Amino acid sequence: MALNDPQNASVPAHTGTDLVKRGMAEQLKGGVIMDVVTPEQAKIAEDAGAVAVMALERVPADIRAQGGIARMSDPDMIQGIIEAVTIPVMAKARIGHFVEAQVLQALGVDYVDESEVLTPADEAHHIDKSAFTVPFVCGATDLGEALRRIAEGAAMIRSKGEAGTGNVVEATRHMRALRSGIKRLGTLDETELFVAAKELRAPHDLVVEVARTGKLPVVLFTAGGIATPADAAMMMQLGAEGVFVGSGIFKSGDPALRAAAIVQATTFFDDPAVIAKVSRGLGEPMVGINVSTLPESERYATRGW
Amino acid sequence: MSPPSIGVLALQGDVREHTAALHAAGAVAVPVRRPEELAAVDGLVLPGGESTTMAKLADRFGLLGPLRAAVAGGLPVYGSCAGMIMLADRVLDAPADQQTLGGLDVTVRRNAFGRQVDSFETEVEIAGVDGGPVHAVFIRAPWVEATGADVQVLGRVEGGPADGRIVAVRQGRLVATSFHPELTGDTRVHALFVELVRAARAEDLSSTGAAVGAGSEGGQPQ
Known about the structure:
- The complex is a heterodimer.
- By secondary structure, chain A is of the alpha/beta class.
- Chain A has 13 helices and nine strands.
- Chain B is built from six helices and twelve strands.
């Protein structure tokens, strides 16, 4: 429904603005966004207290196991998930695949993830995200990458981690890199910020904004390898404002229980007694992969430019 | 009198923005995640976020009962967006098992304006807020579809297909908006609520004082 119908607009209403796109991500803070591949899983996620679901055809662990080209999901599947839940539904488009993003916007998804988990469609360009009404979240491994995505119109950033591994080590690395990059800018003077912008390969105005405010201009979540309540709480203590959990939930022994536990640990991330309590009796976590054994070509975090 | 202490329900949502807006409006803002934290505040803000998530967390951590008791006992509460849904007595388009605190005699429709691509910003005149319309950001926002006799309508959408829809209400010490004043830097709606909390505190102190003076056991509501 467009509220800016000129026939009947005594007061102009504006959709797709930066405030509306970034403001949506502000509402997700302190929450957990869960990968789901069926409407049934989406219901389990909603019942567990997820703030949103990410609709995709295969969770990253299966994309790794099965190989081949990973693309945007089947519109019927996305539609089924949209109809199954009342919380926001996100979906992934390939890096640079602006037509997949157009399709997702037409389907009515609430957020598009331009994701390195899918096979990139363009090895030089990301999607011009400011051209869309639907907001975008993008992955980043460090501050420069985050600011390049924001300059292209991303309204939310997630640290990349290494999806589908169940290993939190890369998420930790990327959260720490983002955090120290932000802190470092705060110590620089005006002249040094010009050099910093050049080194970060990021727009000078965004670099200055981060230096002044001490934070990204958009919400920062974490992703890629979170498998336990303690993983989620650690990322929150490292400065994430919320958590994406992919394979970690539906590749575990008891998805509903684990999903609820990760939601609770994300809210009470600074209370070890709560984290201990919710970590009991969860059954088997996903098995996981040692990231150092992954060949460079199978590391998703290196996708994105 | 010292500035009022106003809690922000910090289970999930845009807690930081409400905290900053309350602070700018002259209150001391504190996060509330536990019953003992709730017991210590003069007023409470239910922030924007996912109402289903907040309700489930409140339930799991034993906060639903104390929150309902606080609303029933006269604690001033302001809810924005998800917070409006939490305060509503009746909710449409919600999962069958969605719990609310209730207290506000309204029927609220969730995601009433549409999905995120329909989210918008506009200007809304708010009764009791001087200085021109409030810049209002609606994000997958609810609207108020029906109001009880004691509910005062504070603001409506003007123009467009949702022309005339109710997006701001007050009933006694409860205030709710469909939109997010905490995102805009305009703190007039928060100032309105801080004033409400000050007035409620003064009222409770004087009635408690009178009751104590009369030798009764009159306790402070909440």
